[in-house]
Write a structure and sequence with these properties.
7-stranded mixed beta sheet; 7 strands
Amino acid sequence: MISIIIPAHNEKNLNEFLKHLLKLKGEKEIIVEKNGTRAKNMNAGAKKAKGEILLFLHADTILPNNALEQINNTIKKHQVGAFSIAFHPSNIFLCIIAKTTSLRSRVNKIPYGDQAIFTTKKTFNTLNGFNELPFLEDVDFMKRARRIGKVKVLKEKVITSPRGWEKDGMLKRTLKNRIIMTLYTLGVKPEKLKKFY
């Protein structure tokens, strides 16, 4: 069984989102957590999960119809996985961002949280879950996961909202993300970087 863990905070369309998940074929349980940081919510959901596979899903990210089948097949050979990404609504700029993000994550094996990261409960526990950072918990988790086993980023896409890009503006958001990731790679702590995000 796949446990779908959703960190949700003031999500306006949560009910419609959950209806979509219920239609997916395959054995599943759905766990929604609403208190604290995203990392804290995902860790809490993982503790409650009854499934042997954990799927961490943002509440604005839509899975492909065959997602659960793909996850079950992938996890037979890999410890951790995720999907490629597309945006809706989209434009030329967002298409480029989606393609470069998907390609980058297939090469460096560090997908972001909005790419629907999944893993076995055993692997998750081995990694001691998500470090409870104010953000970048997904990057931190994947860096640790990459060291202990195989990571697979599927070519199949999830569809996610571009609301962050729309809020900040395309160019500003891109520059902000690049600066944050560069500083994080150089060792600046997420606690300090959060104010720029």
